[in-house]
Amino acid sequence: MLCRKCKEKAVINLRQYNLPLCKEHFIERYISVVEDTIRRFKMFSRNDKVLVAVSGGKDSLALWYVLKKLGYKVTGLYINLGIENEKGEEGYSNMSERCCKNLAEKIDSELIVENVYQKYGSPAPLLDRNRAPCSVCGITKRHIMNEVAKKYGFDVVATGHNLDDEVATLLSNVLRWDEEYLKRQYPVLPAEDGFSKKVKPLVFLTEKENLAFCIFEGIEFYHEECPFSKDATSIFMKNIWAQIEEKMPGSKIRFFREFLEFRKKFLSQEERKDLGKCSICGQPTTAGDMCAFHRIISKIKVQHN
Ligand code: AMP
Ligand code: FES
Ligand code: ZN
């Protein structure tokens, strides 16, 4: 196979576009997809302070690297969720943290680390044992991202959600025809009173493309999946998508692009006016006077240090 652009030997074939590329042209295309996405959805400018939420995995580290390379003002945020901390240095969270620190050094970028175990005395997924671990963990991550963005005056929080994440979520939302979730599924969520603006610059790139980018650019990332997420719905949805994509290449990107058009035409985008304020942290909430995170925290014995 030869690179479509230069006719050198291709190292990757993007089957969804029937596009074989050499390393150089793959990287060039990858970077331009990220830039186009940022511009098209007015995510941020070079004057904005961007907080990149990094998990230590390939997607968010690729994002941090590419944004820095493009000259944006980026700072990484790693939330150490305390997962498998009992294994000390070898635990999932600590290993991921190390990958984030290594990249911070490599690209000479600042990294903020928040540690849930140290602050609340429990791994994030187990802060409330009556709830599904991933749900508690998700609430905790979102809360901390908002908290840090507000505390240090960031204009926007960027996450590494990729096309595979988006179509997996989209399929779940469509199976339930969940209008509220469908309305909120978009590459940009504007700042709402107390919530920071959230953006996903990698939504048009697949996991495979992010993986290839990390390999080609020598970005070291943590390969293991979170031990709590083994049977998560999103993994099930991703397996279904792999089968669809195998039979009909290009289905993922088409499904997502068409959804964005559909959303524009058929789903109204009025701002949510029903948000209250959490009496503890001030973040917006749809339920009473305490946000989901503080409802969890108020139930456990908080360890202050
Ligand atoms: P996930 O919810 O694990 O699929 O991750 C989605 C995105 O959330 C990642 O691409 C990151 O941008 C961000 N993220 C996930 N885990 C963390 C973490 N521990 N610290 C900071 N950001 C995270
Ligand atoms: Fe939160 Fe797995 S990363 S439960
Ligand atoms: Zn080429």
Overview of the structural elements:
With 305 residues, the protein is α/β, with parallel strands linked by helices. The protein has two domains: 42-271, 3-Layer(aba) Sandwich (Rossmann fold), CATH 3.40.50; 276-305, no CATH class. 45% of the residues lie in helices and 12% in strands. The protein is built from eleven helices and ten strands. It has helices at residues 23-40, 58-69, 92-107, 116-120, 133-152, 163-175, 179-184, 207-217, 233-247, 251-266, 292-297, and strands spanning 12-14, 19-21, 49-53, 73-80, 110-115, 156-158, 188-189, 197-199, 276-277, 284-285. The strands form three sheets. Strands 5-4-3-6-8-7 form a six-stranded mixed sheet, with helices on both faces. The protein has a two-stranded antiparallel sheet with strand order 1-2. Strands 9-10 form a two-stranded antiparallel sheet. The longest helix has 20 residues, at 133-152. The N and C termini lie far apart (59 Å). Bound molecules: adenosine monophosphate, FE2/S2 (inorganic) cluster and zinc ion. The site of adenosine monophosphate (AMP) has 14 residues, from α2 and β4.
Fold topology:
Elements: E1 12-14, E2 19-21, H1 23-40, E3 49-53, H2 58-69, E4 73-80, H3 92-107, E5 110-115, H4 116-120, H5 133-152, E6 156-158, H6 163-175, H7 179-184, E7 188-189, E8 197-199, H8 207-217, H9 233-247, H10 251-266, E9 276-277, E10 284-285, H11 292-297
Parallel strand pairs: 3-4, 3-6, 4-5, 6-8
Antiparallel strand pairs: 1-2, 7-8, 9-10
FE2/S2 (inorganic) cluster binds next to helix 5.
